[in-house]
Amino acid sequence: MDTVFDKMNMQTKKKIQQSFLSLLKGKEFTKISIKDITDSACINRGTFYLHYLDKYDLLEKVEEELLEGLRLHIASIDSKYKVEMVKQLQVAGFSMEVFRYIEMHVDQFIVLLSKNNTSGFHLRLKKFFVEQFEENYQTTEMSSIDPTIPTDYLSAFAASAILGLIEQWLSHTHRETPEEVAVLYLKILNFIKSV
Questions:
Q1: CB 29 within 8 A of CB 118
Q2: Do 52 and 16 form a contact (C-beta atoms < 8 A)?
Q3: Residues near 177 by beta carbon (within 8 Å), at least 6 away in sequence
Q4: 118, 28 in Cβ contact below 8 A?
Q5: Most buried residue, 69, 86, 131, 138, by most Cβ within 10 Å?
Q6: From residue 15, how far is each of 19, 155, 174 by CA, in Å?
Q7: d(CA 143, CA 87)
Q8: What are phi and psi of 42, to 5 degrees?
Q9: Domain residues of the chain, as ranges?
């Protein structure tokens, strides 16, 4: 059971992270100082250092929490449902869940994938998707996939495709719903298959 102290700690961390992400919207990561973060969060430096080693640690923790949340969101999809999606190449359901999670955390994804963030979140997200696709390929019968295609190439292609679509989707001010983007993703894959 969380104590009052635990709740206060969580609130402070959240405040620091929100202030940091807000700063990152308008300023390059390299130009953000601890003073900028603490002033924005209305805390002192000591409080910041109780929670994070430095701004790099803060950025890493923000990225890790976001990716862990995405991993848990995907893991919560019924495994039987996932197996059927993969067997039938119905990636729309998988991608719809990805897009739903991103929509729930849209501001964080926009900031972390922006040019102001030079941490390589783009590469971490791609690696995450590669691992997700490889895990799905290993845990299901992939009889409908050409066995001459190495899974690492297939995973890299699939990860790049969904990441490219995510970036394009986030660049629009009037974004489609996660369901619409998932359908679009499937249409694009079907178009590629027909070429």
A1: yes
A2: yes
A3: 103
A4: yes
A5: 86
A6: 6, 37, 28
A7: 7
A8: 55, 45
A9: 1-52, 63-194
> Which amino acid appears at position 183 of this protein?
V
Return all residues near 58 (Cβ < 8 A) that are at least 6 apart: 16, 17, 20, 37, 52
Rounded Cα–Cα distance for residues 33 and 24 (Å):
11
* 20, 62 Cβ separation under 8 angstroms: yes
Fold of 1-52: Arc Repressor Mutant, subunit A (1.10.10)
What dihedral angle (degrees, nearest 10) is formed by the CA atoms of 191, 135, 87, 78? -110
Alpha carbon distances (Å) from 59 to 32, 65, 71, 105, 187: 11, 10, 18, 16, 35
What is each CA distance from 97 to 20, 54, 93, 101, 177, in whole angstroms?
27, 33, 6, 6, 11
Q: How many whole angstroms from its chain centre is CA 13? A: 20
**Which residue's entry shows tokens 């000591």?**
46
Give 69-108 pLDDT, tens digit per residue. Answer: 999 998 887 655 555 555 444 566 778 889 999 999 999 9
Give me the residues of the chain with pLDDT under 70, please. 1, 78-92, 138-145
